[in-house]
Amino acid sequence: MILLAILVGTLVAGIGSVWLAAWLSFGVLSRYTQHMLSLAAGALMATSFLHLLPEAFESEAGAHELFLTLLVGLVFFFLLDKAQLWHHGHEHGHGHAHGDGHGHGHGHGHGHTPHAQATAPSAHAEASAPSAHVHGQGEMPRGQWAVLAGDSVHCFGDGILIASAFMADMRLGMIAALAVLAHEIPHHMGDLAVLRQGSSSRHAAIVKVSMAGAITALGGALGYVLVDALRDWLPFFLVVASSSFVYVALADLIPQLQKRLSAQETVAQILWLGVGIGMVVLVSAVAGHQH
User: Fold this and answer.
1) Which ranges of 25-62 does DSSP label H, i.e. alpha helix?
2) Cα 139 from Cα 137, distance rounded (Å)
3) For residue 108, what are the CA distances in angstroms to 86, 105, 150, 162, 179?
4) Which of 87, 97, 135, 162 has the fewest CB neighbours in a 10 Å radius?
5) How far apart are CA 248 and CA 194, in angstroms?
6) What whole-number distance in Å separates Cα of residue 163 and Cα of residue 14?
7) Per-residue confidence at 271, pLDDT binned at 50, 70, 90?
8) How sure is the predictor about 43, in pLDDT bands with cuts at 50, 70 and 90?
């Protein structure tokens, strides 16, 4: 009975949060597509610095070991990004004629040309919208692998947390599942904004994030069997997930926002960044109050 409750709770939290985030991102907030990158950066950084890292450092794990894990995680996602860029460049080199004029640089121009961005007209803001970053070949542009990998690790950790709560008390498990669901909504909105850059359809982005969300059930099932052993590793799962979100926010999203805009556009950009941070702070406060 407890295992069934854990599986239901983890699936509702892991996949339900993705679908609610998709409804908000592609429904209520669909008219603000250009601002979703700012919201995504704010949500990912706030999830990392205000939720994952504090929770990891409140554990009995040593600070030195956790910081080392954070450093290794950042380097790992940097190398993952490099391997992905090299693979894209190799495919472009063999798949397109040299006269294409776009090649490798076009496929990965996420903020790597600051001088061009600084002098580009305001129309460049339109070209930098998530809908403009379509790669045309079904490829995974920068940041997506890091988001999905980090999301999977994060969801696995959430599953362990929910399983631990259910094994302590059924009511506590239900509250934990609802808290995770609420907390993951703004984070998954950020994930969807990142994946939407290179996906030709909203459906594909939702499916990818939902698959990562389903890892919550795997964490719950393993947590049910090995809860004591896995609980000791939970802080390190949280730090690895945090490193992926920090990397994506600072290496991929923020550079795309760093271009010359009008005063009104700049204010809107900052406000949406604040909205992403504020959403995470709000749901964290509510979840903390429920606990």
Assistant:
1) 36-47, 53-57
2) 5
3) 10, 5, 21, 38, 37
4) 97
5) 9
6) 13
7) very high
8) confident
